[in-house]
User: Fold this.
Amino acid sequence: MSLFSSSDPEALAPLVGFERKLDAIIAHLEIEMPDDGLQQVRDLTAAGEKISAIKLYRELMGVGLAEAKVAVESR
Assistant:
């Protein structure tokens, strides 16, 4: 089973850690990234609208509920 299609949150943990590190590198190097809609997910999360953030993440990334929940909660 591919790590990307897994619905097991523990299997996704290494990917979430990698994503955090990559985000830090991108920020440090001040690299402009094209808008992928994830800023809206972060904004919804910051506003306390976790369910809406998870729903939007699922639509944008084409992933299942468990994977979206892990991704949103890790931000």
The two ends are 25 Å apart (CA to CA). Helices lie at 9-28, 38-46, 50-61, 65-73. The mean pLDDT is 84. Residues 7 and 71 are 11 Å apart (CA to CA).
